[in-house]
Amino acid sequence: MEISLRINGSAETLEVQPQVSLLDALRDQLGLTGTKKGCDQGACGACTVLSDGARITSCLALAVQYEGHEITTIEGVDHPLQEALVRADGLQCGYCTPGQICSAIGMLAEHKEGMASAVTEDDEVDELDEEEIRERMSGNLCRCGAYNGIVEAIKEVAG
């Protein structure tokens, strides 16, 4: 099947089989290897990208589902969170970092829109404290355990 998408601001036309994941299309056909294949089951968040600004796990998304959508991978990200992660020592091996960054950008947009999380009290979404950040980022795993730095960086950017 031929599909058209906007990837990091550029129009792309891809020839894909219906069962090809968005992750595999990005990596194998476009050479965008910043998006990582971790578990390939949607459990680790390493493959997180943004679709029209919303975070998705690209290993579970079929490429054909995103016909006409704007996809942003880590290669297309230019966000203050990137520098904040370095300052906060929010990465170690770096494997999960692209997914963490894309997920955090999507999470910050969700929070700004007033979306509650599982720990939001009394439907008040005003404060993005450590508990809120940890809950909202819980779908992104870091085997190195750099969570404290990741949370610190997100708090810095959110503030």
From TrEMBL:
Pfam families: Fer2, Fer2_2. It comes from the Bacteria. GO terms for molecular function: 2 iron, 2 sulfur cluster binding; metal ion binding; oxidoreductase activity, acting on the aldehyde or oxo group of donors. Keywords: 2Fe-2S, Iron, Iron-sulfur, Metal-binding, Oxidoreductase. Residues 1-77 form the 2Fe-2S ferredoxin-type domain. This is 2Fe-2S iron-sulfur cluster binding domain-containing protein. The keyword Oxidoreductase applies. Pathway: Alkaloid degradation; nicotine degradation. CDD domains: fer2 (cd00207). It comes from Actinomadura physcomitrii.
